[in-house]
Specification:
4 copies of one chain form a homotetramer. The first copy, chain A, is α/β, with parallel strands linked by helices. Chain A has 14 helices and 10 strands. In chain A, the strands form 2 sheets. In chain A, strands 1-7-6-5-4-2-3 form a 7-stranded mixed β-sheet, sandwiched between helices. In chain A, helix 4 crosses helix 10.
Chain lengths: 333, 333, 333, 333
């Protein structure tokens, strides 16, 4: 049993099916009718008009969202352990033309409004210092914690008072919504989010993510930047097909709920070891070298997380029955 | 019958099959064994050691190749109608950090060695002027003409004398090789090419192109730049699978030969109208507005090419029988 | 006698004096009262409210002006022989983050409205092609020709209809105004110019140029970009002092008039040789190798301009008496 | 008496004189014989062959040095309070094309070898994370502390083992050398420094700094980048003149020694208040609001440094007699 990462998991059959069906027509670019359905499909999920752009990776989605909000000489406020800071090879710097990531601390890779306010105070409003243009938060966070609608709204309010944009990295947005049980709109645009990287690859997709603009004015230039960064695929219908299948019948939420449930089962069995509450599909827990080795010998694979800790990630295809053996093995340690 | 572009065509069944099979394993990044097979597979085709990187688009492949060869303050010599100049939304400027495309004239979108030499002479070797770092040629060219091994070698020689890199945009490389009947090595590294954008999407692929480095030293930084530009897919196995299926049993050459043959049939029927010799799978011909309209009424679709001209592109799935009606309609005009 | 370039000439005594006087106070950045006088001083010259930024070079002024008007994914329309294209080492590409210079032909390095319109028509309004964001013209042009107020206004009108910005490279703006005898406002903002690089170094300054924003909204971000590009000097008072002395008592116009007059004397003596009408302070003329050699032997220095031609530039310190010997030598050839 | 910053101070008379004398010739670019003397003049100071480039600001010098050492996708290790991070408006990001500053803690704005080693360990050597390409240290540091030759050598050794470049921001290098009493070579290239931003403006200059390359291979591309960033002045002789006068008869060291001595007098009078040892010409001390107000009323001007603290900077023109009143006022508080 592999618990390395949800980004490696199998593609969901319904999405494979949609890809196969998209091969029935030969249509590129402006003739691609599937891509034209995205705005409406996502608009329904979010109960508002949106502009949606498919992209092959979350890194591309995050970077293009940030570039739409931040000029090269400005800054992006985010957590010190945000994916855009630690795991994207400097992509935001590349896409924006050198904007600065402004790193904040915060438990569980979440940033608190106080911390943002303090950062504002620390910057002299003169031309010698980079001024922030937007805030980026990750929901669920890099440690699997969720921002509630209220928490996002507090940050949204702060952004608004400074005329900053608000971006949400939602590589695991589905897991967050499934966990929060809220309306997708409540934790995004109604709380002040301007652009959302809506993840699909980690949740059953093959190579399609959605960049959802609630502030639709941001979409225009982004279409040029998508092409300019090599991300406009002629056969984009195969990406649109994935996303449409993902939304259909709430597959995105069902997949996320399954992954979350599997994580909860494991978490319950190892409660005393947890480094963070398990709210989505990631489990960080204390685990000695010997314990890790014994689990691996028993056939469970996962990443170490520094010294004496481990990260396990569940995915859409993990059934309760699948993870039961791991839960038992952990309980037995 | 649609002759708009080969970039819209259906994905070849063998490639669809390979994609389906790649869903049998869950493996990302360094665990992806399919991606690790690429160097060897392409090495066999090119009879030398190569470093190969998959990418979703030709624009990404071209841009990363050029960035590997050209610092931000340098220049890239290419044809005035090169795809990198006219149809990539300024991608080379974005990826390189502002390098200059140096545009040369030349019949049929091919550049001649004389023209390159003359360009060298026109640049003062001082810090006020941008100095070229590489040359980019397209084979087959944007007007469907092929550079022969000898022609490439002449340019390769020029590049060498100035220590410039040589890139080949091979969006339709398969069509060129099928047309030239040459060894792939002869028209690339043996002729001085350092990096090749090896097209698959226009020739039966879904969303995978190969960037082939003959100068393997160029590959190292490119791996970082691929991630940094949002092009590293966690489930890259689905791109590797496409490319491996594409090479298997010479599918790439068979597909190209079919497209070329279809184009030849059309070209033969419209010889007096041809704006360029038809060497690959693109046909540019004189066509009045009325003639174009009558063809469209008869069910043939294609792009106008300025005033009184049209472009038709054939693809891997066009059989001789498929294009016969168009050939007859053209002959009857 | 040296006629290489006005950019090498001595600094005018009044400007040297102003620099010396600026050393009486120790004031940096926001305390620098001289820099604060610039808006008003230039506002008087141009009869309107302007925002003015000092910079050490014309390249910096041009690049920051263009960056204020053009996003990284857009284009700048200019002449094929514009200084920004040929002599700034790719600075616009660097400052803008990779914007494309769109090169037009035109006699005497001037671009005609027809040529701009034709360029508009040549660009498909889709995401595959770079869309222009501004136009840059040089007055006086690289061949010493002036755009009249009417000519600028025609281009300004074109820019307006497409919502493009209009930049004027005025490295020799003083020479143009002195030649045209017009109101500075008529050939700039009243004709649609949004930003002007107002040259001083070629006309008696040491290392200060003025970037004049008629569209004052463009100035805000430029202040950050000036610092970010290393162009904010702590002792900027020494640059402001140069510009204020330059404007005082119309020194800028008097210097330019002197240079123009010297050029006219030379041009009159060599009328049959002129490659372009001499409207400012540059003279381009046919000159055989032997003739050039004989002039050099007689003590006159200048640049060759390709085969069989030469460029001579006069400067503010050339009196009629100074250039008489050259005029006579030319007449005697 | 003003103790705001040494960057505002008057220009030293010998430098004013050199500027005036540089106006005796009209020579630009390659004809400028003064600029050609720089390599030899600095070579003598540093007892080795160097390549030297004048620039108008320290920000430009720092940024071009870093760009020579760091590709766009790489990183620069520096202190969290380094000038390049806090006070240059993101210039390193702009010049390098988006490289990442990697921020370390350390007392007095100095970074310790341990901290660098720990940072190395924290980076996974994979393509998802930015890899460092160079280290930048400031000597004297932003809090006026000096790195000794031995301290620099330890960092130099670390850089070498990882093939990283080592840059020294020497905006106050003269103050450091005057304080350390060492050979300039010992604290730079002999300790592994590849490039030094050699400050002049803060120490009696007008608008010239020197970028000194000990690794002379780094200079070639930098000449293009200087032009490309708008920093190549046609009348560069006025910058070269400043630097030559600065080196002549050790003016740079004498000026620095005077500033350091003035600072020491003030520091001695306020020893109990010092936040950092005073090793160069900056004094950071505890000072209540009321105390600060009383000093200001007495005619002493300076910046607050957060709550309950102040920064005072002495300059080349402060004599012991000049600062005596401040020392007494501080002692009397």
């Amino acid at each position: 049993m592999r618990f390395f990462s949800d980004n490696a998991a199998l593609v969901h059959p319904a999405i494979m099916q949609a890809i196969a069906e998209a091969n029935a027509v030969d249509a590129a670019y402006d003739e691609d009718t599937l891509s034209k359905l995205l705005d409406a499909a996502f608009g329904e999920v979010f109960e508002t008009e949106v502009s949606v752009i498919w992209l092959p990776t979350g890194t591309a989605a995050n970077s293009l969202a940030l570039t739409a909000m931040c000029k090269p000489h400005q800054g992006i406020i985010c957590h010190r352990e945000a994916h855009i800071e630690l795991d994207e090879a400097g992509a935001p710097g590349f896409f924006t033309g050198g904007a600065k990531l402004m790193l904040l601390d915060g438990d569980g890779a979440k940033i608190a409004p106080d911390s943002i306010s303090a950062h504002f105070e620390s910057i002299r409003p003169d031309v010698h210092q980079v001024q922030p243009a937007c805030i980026s938060i990750t929901n669920a966070s890099e440690y699997g914690l969720c921002y509630s609608p209220g928490e996002v709204a507090e940050i949204g309010e702060l952004a608004k008072t400074r005329s900053l944009g608000l971006h949400m990295d939602g590589a695991r947005f589905a897991n967050a919504v499934a966990s929060l049980g809220c309306d997708p709109a409540d934790v995004t645009w109604r709380a002040g989010v301007d652009a959302l990287s809506f993840g699909c690859v980690k949740n059953g997709g093959m190579n399609a993510e959605a960049l959802v603009f609630f502030d639709r004015d941001l979409a225009g230039d982004t279409l040029y930047r998508r092409k300019r960064s090599g991300h406009l695929q002629s056969k984009g219908r195969f990406l649109a097909a994935q996303l449409l299948a993902f939304l259909k019948d709430d597959l995105w939420l069902k997949n996320a709920a399954a992954a979350n449930e599997a994580a909860a089962i494991i978490a319950n069995a190892a409660e005393a070891r947890l480094l963070y509450p398990v709210q989505a599909n990631e489990i960080f827990l204390k685990l000695s070298k010997a314990e890790a080795a014994s689990l691996r010998t028993a056939g469970f694979d996962f990443y170490d997380w520094g010294e004496g800790a481990a990260r396990l990630v569940t995915s859409w295809h993990h059934t309760p029955k699948d993870v039961q053996p791991l839960a038992e093995a952990l309980a037995a340690l």
